[in-house]
Amino acid sequence: MNAKSHAIHKVARLFVLTDAIRRFAGAMCGIVLLTVFLLATAPAVAADGDERSVDIVVYGGTPAGVAAAVEASREGAKVLLVEPTGHVGGLVSSGLSHTDFRTFEGITGSYADFTDRVLKQYQETYGPESEQVTICRRGTHAEPHVAERVFLEMLKEHHVDLLTQHELASVEKTESSAKDGRSSITLAKFHATAQRASDVAQSATLLVKAKCWIDATYEGDLLAMAGVRWRAGREGRSEYQESLAPREADDQLQGYNFRFMMTRDPANRVTVAKPVRYNREEFVGILPLLEDGRVKQVFGYPSGCVFKAQIPTIPNGKFDINDVSQAPVRLSMPGENIDWPNGDAATRKRLFDRHLEYSVGLMWFLQNDAAVPEPLRTKAAEYGWCKDEFVDNSHLPWQLYVREARRMQGERVFIESDTDPAPNDARSRFHPDAIAMGDYGPNCHGTHHEGPRFGGKHTGEFYKRVAPYQIPYGVLLPKEVSNLLVPTACSASHVGFCALRLEPIWMSLGQAAGVAVRQSLTWNTPLHDLSPQTIRRALHRVGAATIYVSDIPRSSPLFLAVQQLGACGGLHGLHPPLATPGERGANIIGQYYASFPGHAFLPDALMDDATQQRWINLLPPENRESVQTIYESIPNLTRSKAVLVWHTALESSER
Question: pLDDT over 70 for what percent of the chain?
Answer without folding.
Answer: 91
